[in-house]
Give the backbone structure.
Amino acid sequence: MSSPLALPADSPYLSDSSGFRGSAERLFLPESEAELAALLREATDSRTPITISGAGTGLTGGRVPQSGWLVSMERFKRLDIGPGLATCGAGTLLRDVQAAAAATGQFYPPDPTEDSASIGGTIITNASGSRSFLYGPTRRYVRSLKVLLMSGETLVLHRGEKAPFEFPVIAPPKSTKNTAGYFLRPEADYLDLFVGSEGTLGIVTEAELSLLEAPKSLFTGVVFFESDDDTLVAVDAWRSIPRLRMLEYLDASSLHLLRSRFPEIPHKARAALLIEQEADGQDDVEEDWLDRLETASAMEASWFATGAADRERFRRFRHSLPEAVNDLLRQRGLTKVASDFAVPIARNRDMLRIYRETLDRDFPGRYVIFGHIGDAHLHLNVLPEGEAEWAGAKQMLTGFAREAVALGGTVSAEHGLGKIKKHLLPVQFSADEIESMKHVKRLLDPHWLLGAGTLFPD
């Protein structure tokens, strides 16, 4: 087994993108499954908690240890691309998979904001991103997994294989997306228990992922509106467009925060939609969009891509917003206060109204709302100006979580709960449902050593 490395208090391994920090006794960087299995057996014998670390792009503290040993998967870098298939080590970066697939005329549909995320991290959080409006989350593209249990046992799991034990069934929310808790559905395969489990059941070392043929052409734009109401009318009208794979929203405060980085944003714009449609074989796609934009009262100053460079600029435009939020909060010495709630599509306007009524009263001008409006999954980021406001914002978000669940939604649509948001698990699930999840946890990790402090409030 490789020698452990020192972990100074300011080590980047002891935090993630949320700014949440922790501590650990040792850091290990295993290079093989055999080495990792030996490490896990030693930890089990000594009853030492294990936290698994990906690339550190998470937003809920899941990879941040509170004690015990930290195990980084960064050396598991296998990457093989074949027709319709990518075989990836857990430490392989998402951007490398996307680039390798693109070189063969294929693409990997899940598109989280951070393409520097590790594949293992995207699997254990069931990550999704902007293209999930058409393609759904990571789970849909996992064909097989190699998983190590805390006992050191290796599981090789394929799509279609059921678990060797019975588990209780928990009904899902009515939202189109959900990553809160374990995937305990009647249709679940054995590997589905590990996808989205936030590193609390087993350690993913390798995965086979489905690739799709890359679309031959795309119609991409950033459409600006002078009013939020016009924007929401357009959202409702555009959801049913065939092969629309992105429908992303930025509110007025989001545009204001981005103007220093993108001064070309129209001065009168009060909201924007980032749209992308696969246009293969559709000669009249541009004409169709001209009609839609006129009907929706879109601004003439909207942006449309003429090539890959424009699409990359639009991607940076969308992804620069969470970066700007993170930079602002770091300057204020605060960690992120953000939501990951989703509701049924029919309740999108209701949830947005609840957000605005409360925020305009308690945090006027100090919040942004953006994200996956096509799935009624908007990210709310509060921008408190001090510790007192930060504490009030945290309490307010718990209230919003209850409202989302009351509307039939989820407390986590794509980021998981980790350590920062584990108090929200009982907001969505009953005590009996949480006990059902704990039953599965005990079956696979009987000493409760893996991912200590993640997901479960106690």
Notes: The mean pLDDT is 95. The chain has twelve helices and 17 strands. The longest helix spans residues 308-331. Residues 387 and 453 are 24 Å apart (CA to CA).
